[in-house]
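Structure ticket #2291
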Amino acid sequence: MTMKKVIGYDLDDILDLVGLERRRSVVGIMLPAIGLVAVGAAIGAGIGLMFAPSSGRRLRQEVGDRFDQIRERVKSEAQKQGVMSASAQQ
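Resolution: structure written out below.
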């Protein structure tokens, strides 16, 4: 049984009444920052590949092949899990 069920308030409600709030944990602050850095690194890597000294046709072929591999892997995993309907498998 929680305190909110007993008296209708929990700790956050009581702290809010007196103008206070809980301090965010280090993990709560760092995790979004790490996520943003990872997304930025992925975008930077993609831009770096686009400006690499490779021919455009070859790069497009490699990227297309990689997307096909990923699509096939996702499709096979979805079929294993029974997620896809019979019409979507065709």
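Closing remark: Helices lie at 3-7, 11-17, 26-50, 56-81.
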